[in-house]
Write a structure and sequence with these properties.
alpha/beta, 4 strands
Amino acid sequence: MPIRFEDATVRFEGACGVEEALPLSDWLLAREDARVDLGACTELHTAVLQVLMAAKRPVTVAPTDPFLALRVMPVLNPSPRSGRGGI
């Protein structure tokens, strides 16, 4: 399974498809203390990205994938100077 729920952390591994969006959303709604680990994520479906954006939970481990690091991380963890970031 590309998404694992461990205590207060959700860990993404490999390609995370659209089928992960609903379970992720349900889990994030139930966990106010949730943290996100994208370290091993290689692909992120836009539906999953939208869930993460709406939840506004901290990404504690950034992805090592170059595209996700460059284009997705600024949207999920924007710097105070840059607003919401951009894709």
